Amino acid sequence: MYCAKCGTEVPEGNRFCANCGAAVSAVPEKRSGKPIVGGILGIVAGVLALGAGIALVVDGANVGPLESVDWEGIGFGISFLVTGTLAVLGSSFAIPRRNFVLAVIGAVLALWPMWPLGIPAIVLISLSYEEFRPLR
Ligand SMILES: [Zn+2]
User: Fold this and answer.
1) Distance in angstroms (rounded) separating the CA atoms of residues 52 and 83
2) Ligand 1 mean position to 68 CA, how many Å?
3) Is residue 7 within 8 Å of residue 31, measured between CB atoms?
4) Could you tell me which residues are beta bridge partners of residue 16?
5) Residue spans per domain, the chain
6) Distance, CA 30 to ligand 1 centroid (Å)?
7) Tell me: the pLDDT tens digits for 24-78?
8) Cβ(100)–Cβ(125) below 8 Å
């Protein structure tokens, strides 16, 4: 099991954390793959959004004379680049179960460009709330 205070692994049977000295509860921590899968979905959604964003910006800018630049396409592309980057950053907090709030924000941001991946990411991370380290 893991120390609720500092996250160090505590050997089964030990009553105190060797790292910070906190008393460890006898209840073993539940750990599932849900935050890992949710985090990976969010990161994949973010990376796909980055690819789509780059393609939209390049496509929008490459149509020839200035009057025919597709500003709407570029705008969508930039919004994909921003949300994709933030989705990857937030979701990276889900895999080590480090920060529930940032993990949820990452999954929510994955919704805008890639909702089929964002929705399961939000569900999986929400269900694994208790596996995250307590917020201080
Ligand atoms: Zn500890």
Assistant:
1) 11
2) 61
3) no
4) 23
5) 1-30, 34-131
6) 17
7) 865 555 688 999 999 999 999 999 999 999 999 999 887 677 778 889 999 999 9
8) yes
Q: What does residue 53 show for φ and ψ, rounded to 5 degrees?
A: -65, -45
- The neighbour count for residue 72, using CB atoms within 10 Å, is 10
Q: What are phi and psi of 22, to 5 degrees?
A: -70, 145
Element (DSSP H or E) covering residue 133: none
Ligand 1 center from residue 4 Cα (angstroms): 7
Ligand 1 center–CA 3 separation, angstroms: 5
**Which residues fall within 8 angstroms of residue 91, CB to CB, at 6 or more apart?**
38, 39, 40, 41, 42, 43, 45, 46, 103, 106, 107, 110, 121
C-alpha of residue 25 to centroid of ligand 1, in Å: 11
